[in-house]
Amino acid sequence: MSTHTATVTGATLTYDVHGDLTPDTVPLVLIGSPMDASGFGTLASHFTDRTVVTYDPRNAGRSVRDDATAPLTPQQHADDLHAVLQALGTGPVDLFGSSGGAVNALALVAAYPNDARLLVAHEPPAGGVLPDREVLSAVCADMVATYDSSGLGPAMAKFIALVMHRGELDSTYLTQPAPDPAMFGLPTEDDGSRTDPLMANMRGNGAGFAPDIDALKSAPTQIVLAVGEESGGPVDGEMAGRGGYAVAALLGAPPVVFPGAHQGFLGGEFGQTGKPTEFAAKLREVLA
Questions:
Q1: Which tens digit of pLDDT belongs to each residue from 119-178?
Q2: In the chain, what is the straight-line distance between the N-terminal and C-terminal CA atoms, in Å?
Q3: Is the bond preceding residue 177 a cis peptide, omega within 30 degrees?
Q4: Which is nearest to 158 in space by CA: 102, 199, 195, 200?
Q5: Which of 56, 181, 255, 261 is the most buried (most CB within 10 A)?
Q6: Contact 139, 179 (CB under 8 A)
């Protein structure tokens, strides 16, 4: 593995290349957001026959930016990804993006349609195309307000409760008692910092992302939406899974169901284990 950096306006991005990189290589690029490259160790280990690239998004992991408190939008992340892919110098790549990485990858293909020959977008939390998008927007605004007033623990507790919720949110969601951070092993004291990468993403777009469907349909990229078998369905599922179903419907093709849930590819990273072997096999099948 070799580690590299790409300098962009306001930030320095760090990425890793696993394997050889030549102008004829078609790398498999694995991205999350705000999850950094450390979350893809297990998944990358299943693709030793390919050159794999992992990367730390702006303000996450080893990638730093000048203003660590400013909002970050999917469009900014797409510009950063484009810069990394240009630095690789290989031409179109195969791209796997999960969660916020899937959102940013969809934004990338819409803005830079020649960057990827194939995109697997796994459970993008594209709340802007969901029927409960107005409630989601209010919930995310409340989460950011909690972060600003009380710090990371209380805000992250609200985030975890949101992503675990199944089915559409109704107007009573915000009337529920706030979850206790201690229930999730989160800090209850405010350390005063406001540089968390997830909250920067929430501040920049919340869960309101809606992809440019016309741009995606006109791109030469083959786009596959993916959802977890354990994430629920298009109506009764978790928000990110529902986002995957909704974007797939707008693109006119059903999503591919992957083993596990939202964290299906994890093999112990962050203390979470999905079904990484089965997940990798399914990804290889889709990439073939």
A1: 999 999 999 999 999 999 999 999 999 999 999 999 999 999 999 999 999 999 999 999
A2: 24
A3: no
A4: 199
A5: 56
A6: no
